[in-house]
Amino acid sequence: MSSMSKWFLWLLLILNVILIGFLLSMNNMAAMWMMAIIMLLDSIGSLVAVYRR
Predict the structure, then answer these.
(1) What is residue 1's predicted lDDT score, i.e. its pLDDT?
(2) Structural domain tally of the chain?
(3) What is the mean pLDDT of the segment spanning 14-42?
(4) Keywords, A to Z (predicted)?
């Protein structure tokens, strides 16, 4: 995870803050989609970081 770029990690942080906003506003469907997008981006980023070594 330490070899991921800084902008990508900031993007994941911002998306997680938006996710918390969706949860607080009880917008469960949007929160579910946001969580799926975050998990997908995280897994793609991890694969890229592993294969760059």
Answers:
(1) 47
(2) 1
(3) 95
(4) Membrane, Transmembrane, Transmembrane helix
